[in-house]
Write a structure and sequence with these properties.
single chain, 74 residues, mainly beta, four-stranded antiparallel beta sheet, 4 strands, 54% strand
Length: 74
């Protein structure tokens, strides 16, 4: 997670996964620390990766934030 511009109070970012495209039974796999400024964080998921569908969800309190999330699966 790279937060590159900040005009907010807090930003919460999570990565969810599921075994179906509708994400009807999604599981939160990664939760980044709550952000309150420009910065970055790297998080690694331990264990087997068995889901096919992934999404990034976020909650922003404040006016705006510019951020990038990169998810890589090996």
């Amino acid at each position: 997670l790279h937060v590159i511009a900040w005009n907010a109070t807090t930003l919460d970012v999570v990565v969810d996964s599921d075994d179906n495209s509708g994400m009807t039974s999604a599981t939160e796999r990664i939760a980044f620390a709550q952000n309150s400024a420009v910065g970055s964080e790297f998080v690694e998921l331990a264990g087997a990766i068995t889901d096919d569908w992934w999404r990034v969800d976020w909650t922003l309190v404040g006016t705006s934030a510019t951020f990038v999330v990169v998810v890589g699966i090996l």
